[in-house]
Amino acid sequence: MTLNRADTIQSTRNALNGLQFLKPEEIDRIHVGALALLEKVGLKVELKEAVDLLHGNGAKVEKGDGFFKVKLPPSLVEDCIAQTPKELTYYGRNIENDLIYPTNNTAFAAFGQCVNVLDLVTGEARPSTKADIEISARIQDALPNLKTVARTMAPGDKPPNTQAIHCIDAIVRNTGKHISGGASDRRTLRMIIQMLEVAAGSAEAFKSRPFYSPSFCPTSPLTLGKSCCEVAIDAAAYGLNMVVMIMPLAGGTGPATIAGTVTLGIAEQLSGLVLTQLTRKASPITLGSATTIMDLKSGISAMGAPESGMINACLAQMAQFYQLPCRVACGVS
Known about the structure:
With 333 residues, this protein is an alpha/beta fold. The protein has one domain (5-328): Alpha-Beta Barrel (TIM Barrel), CATH 3.20.20.480. Helix content is 44%, strand content 17%. The protein has 11 helices and 17 strands. The protein has helices spanning 5-17, 24-41, 48-55, 74-83, 130-142, 163-172, 186-200, 203-208, 226-238, 258-279, 306-322; strands at 43-45, 60-63, 68-71, 88-90, 99-101, 116-118, 125-127, 148-150, 178-182, 212-216, 223-224, 242-246, 249-250, 285-289, 292-294, 301-302, 326-328. The strands form 5 sheets. It has a 6-stranded parallel sheet. It has a 4-stranded mixed sheet with strand order 2-3-1-11. Strands 13-15-16 form a 3-stranded mixed sheet. The longest helix has 22 residues, at 258-279. The radius of gyration is 20 Å and the shape is globular.
């Protein structure tokens, strides 16, 4: 039998939607294990504002050297999971590009922040620039199989402390789809929001249909850094859909086993979820992951390893358990 393109795409969707590594009892064990990590081991939190927010809602706090150790009671975590929206819309700049969750299909998007690019004219590798991001955004915007547009490269021709702003500027000028991208700190996020309010026509227009999802990244293992907390708190307060993006390396910053790293990853995702829900109840959040294993011979992250797909499939399955949207890396060659 010969499959046409539509049949092939549907077969891919069905396979992705049906990939289930975890049995129900294993899902329960991972959830309970993640709660135990948050309650008994605790988090390293570097922003006093976040510590006060968590402590005021029942978390136990111990003072460390330049940081705080915060332990979250399971009841607090599960209450925050329960109040997190189970339905949300990734708004496009144009309404026809809205992506609505839940959906029965797997959506695809670009991802990453490469520092080099193969020049389209010469074919030679060189540092990426803001102009390259503009081209990438136009390509992503034109591809119907990509539902959102992300930064794919770093604008190496711009100062490091403004690169995140230049990324979003390059993208918003070249797409009508939903935009995703990180903000390095509170100041950067506020400048990006101001820019997007102008692009939307007014602050009110952007607030009613926010077409940008910032990501914030806990540091493995079990650390909420200062800038991570700032972005999570301010994005939640504004009402943006956020992506809590985890990146533990199994065998490096995470356990060597897949199950152990998945449990750690869930604990880190839930720590970000709790912070956003305590900032603003019912804040929309997506559970994100670029988790993989460390190549123990070279010390690099093995993004193309089979274990990367297995770990992220397990994390996607856990997101289904929580009835929350997820965004996971699918590996590279």
